[in-house]
Specification:
2 domains, 5 helices
Length: 75
């Protein structure tokens, strides 16, 4: 995801510059970026070893359902 790559400093310079040009004029993206930054600040960093086995299995199952499109069909 471009926002994640942007925040992690993983975007190549040309893409980063294009993204920064875009968010200067896009209030929706600017707002979304601010929300993601706030979420990161509030949640902090969660390492994989801090997640219990049951919670990890549940998160992986939800992600797999979402990735396959099944989650949208359940809603």
């Amino acid at each position: 995801m471009i926002i994640t790559d942007y925040l992690e400093g993983a975007l190549p310079l040309p893409e980063r510059m294009r993204f920064e040009d875009h968010i200067r004029d896009c209030t929706g993206c600017t707002r979304y970026l601010a929300q993601i930054r706030q979420t990161i600040e509030l949640v902090g960093e969660i390492r994989e070893d801090q997640i219990g086995a049951e919670a990890k299995a549940e998160l992986l199952a939800v992600f797999q359902d979402w990735k396959s499109g099944e989650l949208a069909a359940k809603d």
